[in-house]
Structure formats: C-alpha cells, structure tokens
Amino acid sequence: MTKTPIILCGALGRMGRACVELVLSSMPDFAIKAAIARDNTQEKPAHWPCEISQSISASLGPAVIVDFSHHSQLLKHLEHACKNKWPILIATTGHSEENLEALREASQHIPVVYAPNTSVMANLLIQFCAHAARIKDVCAHIVEVHHRDKKDTPSGTALAIGRAMMPYIDDPEKITGSSLRMANVVGEHTVSFFKENERLDLSHRVSDRRIFAEGALIAAQFLYGQHPGLYDMGDVLNLK
Fold it and tell me: Which of 95, 155, 213, 222 is 20 to 30 A from 70, comparing alpha carbons?
C-alpha cells in the first residue's frame, strides 16, 4: 500500500510530537518525509524517523504539508505549498484576516484543509450546533476552557462554532461566549442553547491530544491527490 507522505511543520511542539508518535505506533500508512521546526536544536525523541530542518525544501515533495507550527508561519508555508503544488493542512489558530485571505487565494491553486480543530468529535459538535441554531428564537452561549499557556482567545474551535451558527441566528448578539485558561486542560467546549423554559447543552472534552494528531493524519490522507479547493473537517469526515 502506498503511504501518504507528510512534511510536518511544528514538529517539536506538542502536536508535532503527537503526530510522530502516532505514525510510529499505530498509523503505518503515513511516511514522515521531513520534520520542520524553527528551533531544530531541541532534543528529539528516540526513534525519530527523520532529520529536523528549519525550512522546507522543494526536494522533499511530493507530499502533504501538515502545519501545526504557529500562525506567523502561515504565509511562508503557503508559499512553499503553492510553488510546489503540494496540498496543505492548516491546523493552527489565531489567524488574521490577511492570513485567511491568503489561505483562500492559495486554495484556488492547491487543495487546502483549514481545520482549527482536527478532532472528529469536535467537528461533530460544530455540525450539531449548526443544526440547533436553526430553531426559531434560540440564543446560544459558548464556553471554552484550555490550558493556561494557550495564547489565542477565544479558541479557534469556539470561533468555528460561532461561524457555523451565524447564518441561522437572526441577531449576532444572540451568540455570546466566554473563555477560561486553567491548569493543563487540553480542551473543552460547551455550547448552551436557550429558549423560553428550556435549555440544551452540547459538550466536547478532550483528555488526550493524540486525537488531534489522528484527525490531522486523516485530513492529510484526504488531501493527497485532491483537487484544488478550500476544505474543512466536515469535508474530510463527510459530515456535510
């Protein structure tokens, strides 16, 4: 069986390491062709499958770029992807409108998955919230909780939930939210829907960040050989 080739950006971060561990332990249908890290002097784990570089080389392709680095690196990674006609998964958050516009432009030339959250169940939550928002006269409140070191607020997932609900709620002020940064919480999102005399709570909680790595690899497999376009995890998981 042909393995899906991966160029892993942010390789020495939490998510990069989780992707490598998953490929080595239980997902052998992937080949990590390159690991990219801004600081490649950090100690790498045992049995690391390749050398760690600071930049992407054209000689590495064809491959799917899996970007778990930082939003400040997006334009550079998109440039490499477009120049070499490689698919790319953007799994970083905190992007400016300029970054998002560059992402949309790139998707006219290459296949792009933009996924602030690559968890299968989190993306089910987004779909469920979009359905619940169709109910007449409903209001919604999003609560997200993450570890104390998470920089962007609100989370990319909370923003994605809000975007999914917005077409169906007549007044943007009917969607509110709050963010908490506590201890080492991996990620929790609860969306409460309110109508007169009743309430619905939908929640998703993560106990192991390997689920994000698993979803990212599924998205990379989806992208390999895909036509140019802008996709999300709903497309990857056939939820639409």
Answer: 222
Tens of pLDDT along the chain (240 residues) come to 689 999 999 999 999 999 999 998 888 899 999 899 987 667 776 777 777 888 888 777 789 999 999 999 999 999 999 999 999 999 999 899 999 999 999 999 999 999 999 999 999 999 999 999 999 999 999 999 999 999 889 999 999 999 999 999 989 999 999 999 999 999 999 999 999 999 999 999 999 999 999 999 999 999 998 999 999 999 999 997
146 is catalytic: yes
CATH of 4-114+210-236, one of 3.40.50.800, 3.40.50.720, 3.10.20.30, 3.50.30.30: 3.40.50.720
pTM assigned to the model: 0.90
- Cβ-count burial 89-125 (b if 16+ within 10 Å, e if not): bbbbbbbeeebeebbeebbeebbbbbbbbbbbebbbb
77, 80, 146, 204: the catalytic one is 146
DSSP conformational letter for 50:
S
Q: Pick the catalytic residue: 150, 151, 204, 240?
A: 150
